Amino acid sequence: MSLLENNSVVYKEVPVGLPTEENLEIVTSKVSSSAPEGGLLIQVLYVSLDPYLRGRMRDPSIKSYTPAFSTNEILYNFGVGRVIDSSAPEFAKGDIVKSSITQFTMYQAVPNEGLKFFNKVENPNRFPLTYYLGVLGMPGLTAYYSFYKIGEPKKGETILISAASGAVGQLVGRLAKHEGLRVVGSVGSDEKVKYLKDELKFDEVWNYKEISPVEAIAKHIPEGIDIYFDNVGGELLAAALVGMNNYGRIIACGQISQYNIPNPEDRYGIKNTMLIVTKRLKVQGFIILDIYDKDAETVTEFEEAVSKLLKDGGFIYKEDVIDGIENTLDGFIALLTGKNFGKVSVKVST
Questions:
Q1: Which InterPro entries match (predicted)?
Q2: What's the number of domains the chain is made of?
């Protein structure tokens, strides 16, 4: 039995504000080149970086919809890898697998009891493997489920999408165009504005660093908002409430503008929630992990529908792949501060 040198991202302590090298540390160790009995040895290829990971970096005594990460353990998330050794009959050397517990590490030993979290990637259409972390993965299902089930879109309506060039927002925009909606987006750079208008065919897009939300909505959406897809919370959510049409729907997906503000008293307070009553709005949050657990039919529907759209060439999906596990922290900070451009994942191996 030989040993492989293994670099991993280890979660060391709870961040205050944005994570630093004191919170996420690269640690070098050795791992056996043989699979554990009844298990697998996986060469990790790609691991997803998602905003919700920041919420798991908290004091374990604070309860939430996902458990807090344990300190001094390897960070993990959705990922894809290649089986390089197997002592489990259901997997063979060379299989490509995906999992929600893929570690930020070069080689991951999976014991027999962990196999239930791993599935083979068949990939008959030969999509990039990163698609299974984005447009065909958790962010894709997030966009698809919430747009159709919560947004209840109707042809001719207007949708506003915040963080519109991100992993979820860009797919929501493409689905909305496919369904005949007028699509408006908010992003954080002129480059993203140009991309969404020229490539993804958004009807209107603004750079939130150059115009206030109230002014932008008045200028770009004079007809009012029927669906607001909220990824950011804060000031834009307050402005969207003013701009909503009667019986509009607000899809509460995230509040990334508030995630790294440690003191709750410093977070943006929404003061005009009476508009929810007077405009008869539907405001609904959701946790996409619930859908994986409870609605297999929707998961299958999503996978088939979006795969067909991708195969037919009707969809473009922007990705931002960080090269090298040693750059995980930089990629995560870029994601949390809006400096990424598209779905972020870390390329660990080839």
A1: ADH-like_C, ADH_N_2, ER, GroES-like_sf, MDR_fam, NAD(P)-bd_dom_sf
A2: 2
Helices (H), the chain: 52-56, 138-145, 169-178, 190-198, 213-220, 234-243, 274-278, 288-294, 296-311, 328-336
Domain end residue (candidates: 240, 268, 289): 289
pLDDT tens figures, 81-131: 999 999 999 999 999 999 999 999 999 999 999 999 999 999 999 999 999
- Per the structure, the complete domain to which residue 263 belongs is given by 138-289
CATH code: domain of residue 18? 3.90.180.10
- Does the model's pTM come out above 0.90? yes
Determine how many CB atoms are found less than 10 A away from the CB of residue 191. 12
∠ CA 250-256-257, nearest 5°, is 100
Q: What is the side-by-side order of every strand in the sheet holding 182-187?
A: 204-207, 182-187, 158-162, 225-230, 244-252, 282-285
**Phi, psi torsion values for 195, nearest 5 degrees:** -65, -45
309 within some domain: no
